[in-house]
Structures are given as structure tokens and as C-alpha cells.
């Protein structure tokens, strides 16, 4: 009886998100680790984690995860300098999130809006100052955004690639002037854009006002991800914009907090030059010499090729996620952790 009810619930979820039968099946969306290719230890949990979840940390371990994420076209991260917000971030008074909720929707599909802990330009959490917005999958940083210039931000989103766009060079104007009333100072009208320096992003839901588990898991996972990225020279803290690294940001509720921790990983195409490397076929000495390559100056900016959305992530998963998911675009535990995502290079998505 219980399994029958769960099947009906899953069918209702699929109907709600608009499954059309054309989505990629679970084994097809992202490569899955293989012991012959990736080594005998490719699916093992980290044995020396320095952090653990509290004993009271309990989540749903039985629901099917894959294919129940509602499709989205563009994802924006709004810099707020905070890691927690009111329950619905659109109710943050005077914020960019609120202004977006009241603005005309983008013409190129569903927009996902996340508040983030990205520092604001003025190092304040006040919404009275202009802030920065990161547009994905374009990997475009939009600066000097205010609630009044949100319509201009939306026009930038309309001209940016979406999750279903083919991988082609991105051409976003480096500056735009918002159409605001004449008394408005020129400095508040000018919006600038630039490519994000990062090769990959790890986004962690941290919103404890929606679920205490998100507030508990995010800082613990960040610490563990940092421990594995730092020796590779890839960890970037909130103020580090050296090119070629991995940014780790806290974001607001993305849904499915009962499957905490939710982790979204955006990757540029072959982000570190390791996607085709078969680690399991290398000797130990050869494996030690494998290092992520740095981006080449002047290379085309294509934005993110993939977003890999995982859930039920624990500290002991972080080593494998860094080694295989961040560095190579593979999934370690697809059946229990993969919620969905997209691969623009192959034109595949989970919805």
C-alpha cells in the first residue's frame, strides 16, 4: 500500500513539472563513475572527514529524486552579503529579489532567483546600495544593479544563453544604460557586465528560516569542500577572484529541503581539462602528476556547460564530488543523490 501511494505521488510530481517523455533518463544525463575508468575507490566515501552532521540530522532517504526538479532557463544569484533571509526572499523589502518578483518576467523561460552570500560592493547588507548579480548559465557578473534597474537586468537575461541554448560564444554588452527619470544620477543608470572568473561554482542552500538542516549543513559542507579544493589550488573564498578556481556560495531555498543538503554545481565546458582523463587506467605516479589546467587567455566564453544538482549530500561525499563531479562532470551516486540538471554540450536536461 505504501509503495503504491508513493508511486502515485511521484506520478503527480512528474505531471506538475511537465514531463513530456523527452527528458534524459537517469543513466544518460551525466557520466557515472566507473571503477575500470576511474579507479577502485571512485565510489567510496571519504574516510578522514573532519566534520560530521549532528546526530539529530535526519532526512528523507527513500523518495526517488531524479526527474522531479521543475525546469528552469536562467538562474540569478543576488549578492546580499547574508546567508539567511526571510522565508520567501521575494519578501525581502527593498531587495533585488523583491523587484524581480514585481518585474516583467524574462521572455526566454523560467527564471530561478536565489539570494546569496556573495559580498555586496559596499560590504553592507543594506538593500539601499547597488549590488551585484551573477547570471547563469552565462557565468556573467552584472554590477551596479538596483531595484530601479531590474528591467535592464531582465533585458540582459533575455539576451543571455539559457540552460537549453547550444554552447556558443557569449556576447553580452559590457555596459548598458538604464532608462530612468532624468534627475537620477548617471552613476545609478550605468550597469556593467563581465565574465565570472570561476571555472565552476558550488552552491549550497543555507536558508535556516526554511529548514534548520540547511543552516546546519551549508557551513559544514563548505569547510569540507574547501579542504579538498585548497590543495589543488582551486578554492576561492568570497573575495578571491583569481581566474580558474571554484567559488562556493550559500544561496536561498531551492526546494527539497527534506533531502538536505542540496548542492548545485555549475561547470564550464571541460572546466579543468580533465573530463576525458581515465584516472583508473593511470599508475599511482601518473595520477599524482594529473593537475587541473588553467584557463587560456582569450578563449571563447561559453558559460556553463552543465549544472549537476545533487541532494542528500553529506560531508563524507565531498571528496568524491570534488574529484569526479567538480573536476570531471561525473556523478558518484546517481540513484541516491542526483535530482537533475542539464548538459548544454549534449542538449540534454532532466525535465
From TrEMBL:
Q: Record's CDD domains? A: TRX_Fd_Sucrase
List the SUPFAM superfamilies: Thioredoxin-like
What name does the UniProt record give this protein? Actin patches distal protein 1
Taxon lineage: Eukaryota, Fungi, Dikarya, Ascomycota, Pezizomycotina
Amino acid at each position: 500500500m505504501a509503495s503504491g501511494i508513493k508511486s502515485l505521488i511521484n506520478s503527480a510530481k512528474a505531471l506538475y513539472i511537465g514531463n513530456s517523455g523527452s527528458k534524459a533518463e537517469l543513466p544518460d544525463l551525466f557520466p557515472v563513475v566507473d571503477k575500470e575508468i576511474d579507479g577502485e575507490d571512485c565510489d567510496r566515501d571519504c574516510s578522514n572527514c573532519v566534520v560530521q552532521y549532528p546526530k539529530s540530522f535526519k532526512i528523507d532517504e527513500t523518495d526517488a529524486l531524479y526527474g522531479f526538479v521543475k525546469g528552469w532557463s536562467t538562474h540569478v544569484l543576488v549578492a546580499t552579503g547574508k546567508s539567511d533571509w526571510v522565508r520567501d526572499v521575494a519578501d525581502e523589502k527593498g531587495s533585488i529579489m523583491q523587484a524581480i518578483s514585481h518585474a516583467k518576467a524574462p521572455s526566454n523561460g523560467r527564471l530561478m532567483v536565489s539570494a546569496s552570500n556573495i559580498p555586496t560592493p559596499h560590504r553592507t547588507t543594506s538593500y539601499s546600495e547597488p549590488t551585484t548579480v551573477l547570471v547563469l548559465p552565462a557565468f556573467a557578473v552584472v554590477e551596479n544593479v538596483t531595484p530601479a534597474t531590474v528591467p535592464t537586468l531582465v533585458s540582459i537575461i533575455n539576451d543571455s544563453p539559457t540552460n537549453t541554448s547550444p554552447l556558443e560564444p557569449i556576447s553580452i554588452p559590457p555596459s548598458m544604460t538604464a532608462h530612468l527619470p532624468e534627475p537620477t544620477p548617471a552613476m545609478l543608470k550605468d550597469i556593467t557586465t563581465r565574465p565570472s572568473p570561476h571555472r565552476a561554482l558550488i552552491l549550497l542552500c543555507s536558508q535556516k528560516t526554511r529548514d534548520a538542516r540547511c543552516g546546519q549543513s551549508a557551513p559544514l559542507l563548505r569547510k569540507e569542500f574547501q579542504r579538498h579544493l585548497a590543495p589543488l589550488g582551486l578554492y576561492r573564498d568570497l573575495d578571491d577572484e583569481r581566474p580558474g578556481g571554484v567559488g562556493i556560495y550559500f544561496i536561498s531555498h531551492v526546494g527539497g529541503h527534506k533531502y538536505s543538503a542540496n548542492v548545485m554545481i555549475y561547470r564550464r565546458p571541460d572546466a579543468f581539462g580533465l573530463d576525458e582523463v581515465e584516472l583508473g587506467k593511470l599508475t599511482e605516479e601518473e595520477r599524482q602528476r594529473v593537475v587541473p589546467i588553467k584557463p587560456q587567455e582569450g578563449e571563447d566564453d561559453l558559460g556553463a556547460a552543465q549544472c549537476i544538482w545533487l541532494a542528500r549530500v553529506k560531508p563524507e561525499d565531498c571528496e568524491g564530488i570534488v574529484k569526479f563531479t567538480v573536476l570531471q562532470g561525473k556523478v558518484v551516486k546517481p540513484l541516491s543523490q542526483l535530482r537533475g540538471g542539464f548538459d548544454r554540450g549534449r542538449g540534454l536536461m532532466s525535465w
